[in-house]
């Protein structure tokens, strides 16, 4: 395919604008640091907890509307076994997640001034147990990053004629540079530019993730964080409308009347690339070029969020809490920069697999839903929860999930629940809501084993020397919430 020169020029302009915005935000961050006595780490990771309502709405919305949003949801609508009903289900679920964050999680997380959502795990369960969930959170960031970059590689290779690998590495490099320079300030302010471009592009032609909690914790008040969540819930529905239209049009299109020809993308096994294919072959060239900007903006917003989220989680919950508690502010700054680089390179390398973005999206969501969500609910809202219950809940829910099979990971079902069917390859497919079953099972195990272990230790039935997780030494409750006047 010949190089699309106008498209390449527009992308160069877009990247230059995003990079300039990131550099400006970096300068702003340094000026803010000099004017205030704020902790330098909070300045980098949480924007000094001073993100205002307007920027907060943009960056909260951009957290979810990433490259995978465009490509994966269009793929869902286009694929016959999924269709429009699956898109409606996903969008409704994500909008509901924002509302739940605003109503339930904003106040207890932000008013205790946590740096990451893993902080309460360290306080109540200790560093060892908390490390397990830090690793899971990091895993979801690694999955999220290539999901976004797969979308951009597909779009730029189909429409611009650039190689898949070059497209991915160029975009990842830009995101790494401005995230390294300015931390959350760069991420938040470039999100403004990116989301404006995404909305314009759309007009012409789309709870338990650490990046979402990071936006909540960075807001200048609880009310700002709460309202940003509500606005994001509405925005994600609006941006899903053109995605649904593109997928529906691709489903009914007569590909013989286009230069793409027969067989269809589905028959060629290219359903994962349906978004760029539809833009390239079913719209005028100028619309396709504008669509590239939309996807690139979405990918930037997803990539920088994943980079900063992973760096925040590891630096605060592993390096500072476990490996180097005495680390200085300057040392932590260099650790964060190194982590952004490592996560960026590693996540970008994973995108070379070119697997379905929708598949990776599902795996990432399942990880957070099954293993992080029940734990976050229990550690925040149930004082009885302790390290023994947490460990038991995680271990038993993991065992149950593996026994029920995990088709996306190639794990066959050993435990066959009611309603399952045998597919054409002879494999058993679960129809039972396995993930929700694991969540409920996990919550029950956490509360039950926490209560039993506390009773056995408190009454002396089990000797204190067997308290290997130090439940008797750790606080039973989280610090009280500090309601300030500007947080109401």
**Largest sheet properties:** 2 strands, antiparallel
Count of strand segments: 2
Q: How far is the N terminus from the C terminus?
A: 57 Å
Mean pLDDT: 79
Rg is: 23 Å
Q: Catalogue the unreliable spans.
A: 483-488
**Largest sheet, spatial ordering of strands:** 1-2
Number of helices: 16
Helical residue percent band: over 70%
Percentage of residues in DSSP E strands: under 5%
Shape: globular
Topology as a string of helices (H) and strands (E): HHHHHHHHHHHHHHHEEH
Return the structural class. mainly alpha
Explained architecture:
The protein has 16 helices and 2 strands. With 488 residues, the chain is an all-alpha fold. Helix 3 packs parallel to helix 10. The longest helix has 41 residues. The C terminus is likely disordered.
Core attributes:
488 residues, 1% strand, 71% helix, mainly alpha, two-stranded antiparallel sheet, 2 strands
Could you give a quick summary of the protein structure above?
The chain is mainly α and 488 residues long. 71% of the residues lie in helices and 1% in strands.
């Amino acid at each position: 395919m010949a190089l699309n020169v106008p498209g390449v020029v527009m992308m160069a302009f877009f990247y230059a604008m995003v990079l300039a915005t990131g550099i400006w935000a970096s300068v702003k961050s340094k000026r803010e640091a000099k004017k205030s006595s704020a902790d330098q780490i909070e300045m980098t990771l949480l924007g000094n907890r001073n993100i205002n309502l307007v920027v907060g709405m943009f960056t909260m919305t951009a957290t979810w509307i990433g490259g995978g949003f465009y490509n994966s949801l269009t793929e869902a609508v286009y694929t016959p076994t999924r269709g429009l009903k699956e898109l409606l289900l996903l969008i409704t679920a994500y909008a509901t997640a924002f509302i739940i964050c605003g109503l339930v999680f904003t106040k207890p997380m932000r008013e205790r001034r946590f740096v990451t959502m893993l902080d309460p795990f360290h306080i109540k369960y200790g560093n060892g147990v908390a490390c397990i969930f830090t690793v899971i959170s990091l895993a979801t960031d690694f999955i999220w990053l290539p999901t976004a970059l797969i979308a951009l590689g597909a779009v730029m290779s189909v429409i611009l004629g650039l190689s898949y690998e070059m497209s991915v590495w160029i975009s990842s490099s830009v995101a790494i540079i401005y995230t390294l320079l300015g931390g959350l300030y760069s991420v938040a302010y470039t999100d403004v530019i990116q989301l404006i471009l995404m909305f314009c592009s759309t007009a012409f032609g789309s709870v338990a993730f650490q990046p979402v909690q990071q936006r909540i914790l960075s807001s200048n008040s609880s009310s700002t964080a709460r309202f940003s969540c509500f606005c994001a819930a509405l925005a994600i529905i609006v941006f899903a409308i053109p995605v649904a239209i593109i997928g529906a049009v691709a489903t009914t299109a007569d590909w013989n009347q286009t230069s793409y020809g027969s067989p269809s993308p589905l028959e060629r096994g290219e359903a994962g690339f349906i978004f760029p294919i539809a833009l390239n072959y079913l719209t005028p060239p100028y619309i396709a070029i504008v669509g590239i900007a939309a996807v690139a903006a979405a990918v930037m917003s997803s990539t920088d969020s994943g980079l900063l989220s992973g760096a925040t989680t590891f630096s605060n919950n592993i390096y500072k809490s476990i490996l180097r508690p005495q680390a200085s502010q300057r040392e932590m700054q260099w650790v964060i920069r190194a982590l952004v680089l490592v996560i960026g390179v590693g996540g970008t390398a994973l995108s070379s697999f070119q697997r379905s973005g929708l598949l990776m999206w599902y795996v990432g969501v399942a990880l957070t839903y099954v293993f992080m969500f029940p734990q976050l609910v229990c550690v925040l809202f149930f004082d009885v929860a302790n390290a023994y219950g947490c460990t038991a809940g995680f271990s038993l829910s993991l065992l149950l999930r593996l026994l029920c099979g995990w088709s996306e990971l190639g794990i066959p079902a050993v435990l066959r629940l009611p309603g399952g069917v045998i597919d054409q390859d002879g494999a058993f497919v679960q129809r039972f809501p396995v993930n929700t079953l694991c969540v409920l099972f996990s919550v029950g195990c956490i509360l039950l084993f926490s209560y039993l272990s506390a009773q056995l230790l408190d009454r002396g039935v089990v000797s204190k020397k067997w308290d290997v997780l130090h439940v008797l030494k750790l606080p039973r409750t989280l610090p009280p919430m500090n309601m300030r006047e500007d947080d109401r």
